[in-house]
Amino acid sequence: MKTLNLHCDYIKFKALKPAIKTIEEIAPNQILEGESKECLVVLIAIEKGDGVKLIPQLLESIKKIASEVKTSNIVLYPYAHLSSNLGSPSLAIQILNETAKQLLNFKITQAPFGYYKSFELKVKGHPLSELSREIKGEDSEEIKDISDEQRKQLLRTISKSKLDTTKLAENDHRIIGGKMDLWSFNNVAPGMVFWHAKGLHVKNKLIEFWREIHRADGYEEISTPQVMDRKLWEVSGHWSKYGENNFLTQYEKRDFIVKPMNCPGGMLVYKTSPKTYKDLPLRVGEIGTVHRVELSGTLGGLFRVIQFTQDDAHIFCTEDQLEKEVQKIINLINKTFNQFGLEFDHVELSTRPEKRVGEEAVWDLAEATLEKILKKSGMKFTVNKGDGAFYGPKIDFHLKDSLDRTWQCSTIQLDMALPERFELEYTDDKANPKRPIMLHRVIYGSLERFIGIITEHFNGKFPLWLSPNQIKVMTLNDDANEYAQKIYQDLFQEGFRVELNDKSESMNKKAREAQIQRFNYLITVGEEEMKQNKIAVKKRDAKEIRTMTLEEFKEILKQEITSKQL
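Now predict its structure.
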């Protein structure tokens, strides 16, 4: 792209006739005649290889020269004579129009593209009145393949991270995860989980359960972008408060943030359409991947990570609906954790801090409502005065893990900041604009942390509906291999998590390996089972071995999965 920048007393131009036959089709409604005074005239030629990625550089060049010559009047004048290597008309029009659109705080005049024009101008006679520029993409560093020796050295550097297990309890999720082939960690991605197929199965089952109970409770699910402009986080207030905890990247010289939380994206979704009191309460959930900078020394397995999955939801409601909505959330939290046989160690109600936003009347209502509901539900709780968030009071639910550590998982927060900062509104029954009350809540919290907790809670012995290792089919001898293969295929086609071990190994070794993998059921087949067309079934941790038909066994499995037995 080439430009000639002329600081002029004036310019007058007039389109005479089209230079491109189809110009009126590809660029309709152009201004064909105009003038400007005390202006910077930018003669522009768009060349082959140019693209919209050059617009930020073009803008920077124009703004810099305009500042130097002290003018706010810009004339964008397409001028093909600056180059013999012109780009396509459609690309040139796109670049010119987008440049004009992004030159904020300037008075822009655009000369028509694709016409023969007459023009008259008077250039000022100072040293900066005539400046030529060539704008091109930054030269990229030549990318060369590494040598074989360099590759081997790098491979050694990024090889599988070693976990020191000497100080870990036997039921630590990091040990169990390794033995069961659930997940791993590597220094190429500190604080981020490599989900293996079996571990991802557990995570996906938890998400399926989450979707099932939330759909029944009237929630809609959304998904928001992973990378968003810094401006969004400045509006939300997260940039000024947590800027150092964010991962930054750039696109077209704009600062972007890798999403540290789901909330601001949810606010934009709310604003996409007008809302009335009839739309409330509006319950919107998102299972989103977020990233937050953590010091490497604080990272620990699934409990403290940089990349994690958060099950956020926002409930937009009126004051009259607040109490009922909080109670519904508490019921949902209890339902979720009862499903896993988990009990809360303690519950905390945190009240208004010294520095806060929002009206005192709303704080009074919020705190009184949360306390009233906790008392009504019979839950034991403590009050942490002054420990609420700056945007509202909150209820935190703490779990104690198998090592007597406590973790905050679920939380209910009344957020008075984001609806105000994003100017969220709904109209009441008299068509008056109102600000909705917004509840922000999570159930699992971090899915990674929750999976770590239940892995240790169950000692890797997941209930059948959640288990990545449901059934192991084992042969007593090689003669049973064909029969075992049929059993395996039947169960696999039914959708069960089943594996087959028909190796020529001792039964003790096969059973020991299956026990390490925490399979829910072990099936053994041999000569006797083939004769009867049955299978021998042993449930995990049970001593009894039962003989039954495959159909009888499948019915047991289906009932256990449907009821989500522990």
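The chain has three domains: 2-134, 163-454, 471-562.
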